[in-house]
């Protein structure tokens, strides 16, 4: 493994950002649908929270792709928490949160790809 940082992103890093963005867009879409369909204020608030989480996923993924290792850690923790919550929600609510679970699994796949040995020189250029 070379000590010089890579000048072009490896394939796994490009997959990571694509999966993070896909997960973020699906979270935003899920949040908009939840907020638009329901009349209950609490459910609308949950939809708005999912929109904000999706936007944070996209923004942090972009910062991480810009070689910020702190943003990579932040987006990885965020997607792990959202995945855990969506799995709990899928058990409790059934298929109503299938899109949420799918979105969080896409983003979790991006987090896994970002920590592959081939992606490490791109996301952590100082090592």
TrEMBL record:
<feature type="transmembrane region" description="Helical">
    <location>
        <begin position="43"/>
        <end position="65"/>
    </location>
</feature>
<keyword id="KW-1133">Transmembrane helix</keyword>
<protein>
    <submittedName>
        <fullName>Uncharacterized protein</fullName>
    </submittedName>
</protein>
<feature type="transmembrane region" description="Helical">
    <location>
        <begin position="77"/>
        <end position="108"/>
    </location>
</feature>
<keyword id="KW-0812">Transmembrane</keyword>
<keyword id="KW-0472">Membrane</keyword>
<feature type="transmembrane region" description="Helical">
    <location>
        <begin position="12"/>
        <end position="37"/>
    </location>
</feature>
């Amino acid at each position: 493994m070379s000590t010089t940082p890579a000048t072009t992103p490896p394939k796994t890093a490009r997959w990571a950002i694509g999966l993070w963005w896909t997960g973020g867009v699906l979270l935003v879409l899920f949040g908009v649908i939840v907020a638009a369909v329901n009349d209950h204020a609490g459910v609308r608030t949950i939809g708005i929270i999912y929109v904000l989480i999706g936007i944070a996923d996209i923004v942090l993924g972009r910062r991480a792709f810009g070689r910020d290792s702190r943003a990579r850690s932040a987006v990885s923790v965020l997607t792990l928490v959202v995945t855990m919550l969506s799995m709990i929600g899928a058990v409790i609510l059934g298929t109503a949160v299938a899109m949420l679970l799918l979105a969080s699994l896409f983003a979790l796949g991006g987090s896994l790809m970002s920590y592959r040995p081939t992606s490490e020189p791109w996301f952590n250029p100082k090592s």
